Amino acid sequence: MFEVQFDFLAHAVVIDRCDGARVEMSLVPRTVAEFYAEFMAALLSLGISVEIYGKPVEVPEPIPFAEDKLYRAYDRVAAQNFWRILVSCDAVFKQFRARFTGKNSPVQFFWGSFDLAVTRFSGRRAPERPGTDAITREAYSHEVISAGWWPGAGLGEAAFYCYAAPEPPLLEVQRIRPDLAYYNRELKEFILPYERVRKAESPERTLLEFLQSSYEVAAQLAGWKRAELEANVRAA
């Protein structure tokens, strides 16, 4: 057995084998091909043979790792700040997750869009999405309300978000808390800018208010059986 960790304090990749053997790699500016070659060699030096799909997904114009010889910067400060944001958000998302007794996902990081998210399920099947790929079709085979934190590529700023799939009618005209949050018609998501949360008197309370409010509005419009799904809701 082995484990791979990214250490954003020491800026290293650490590979630990269950018998105590260890290899460390420094996180430094280099090409993807150089990093990939060193990483695979480090695994082999520990007697670990694994198959890794050698091409990135969910990115435009993907280049196989072994062939990506474009120089890539590594900003230690930015990497550590990004990790600290994820750690802070993770703690709040877990509080929010604990309020739901129905099926929900763990708090998880999606490297394709680089967002940290937690998803709730109503338990009902959703209408099949025409023209979708196999992954998207399976991901949205059942009704979901998903929330998370996203660096904001394309939006222009980092933000918290919440969306429902399928989206219930009139969701876009609903008001949610806090007042700084808004509905983005292009993304079809509620958005709360990260900077507004960071500068709030209580960032944790502000974020929890956004998560709870956006969920309640979407669940109510979609007709979710909230009394059966939430720890703090009782049937009338």
Protein model, in words:
- The chain is of the alpha+beta class.
- It has 2 domains: 2-72, no CATH class; 76-229.
- Helices cover 30% and strands 25% of the residues.
- It has helices at residues 32-45, 76-97, 134-139, 194-198, 203-222, 226-229; strands spanning 2-7, 12-17, 22-26, 30-31, 71-72, 108-110, 115-125, 142-150, 159-165, 182-184, 189-193.
- The strands form 3 sheets. Strands 6-7-8-9-11-10 form a 6-stranded antiparallel β-sheet. Strands 1-2-3 form a 3-stranded antiparallel β-sheet, covered by helices on one side. Strands 4-5 form a two-stranded antiparallel ribbon.
- Strand 1 and strand 2 form a beta hairpin.
- The protein is globular.
- The N and C termini lie far apart (51 Å).
- The mean pLDDT is 94.
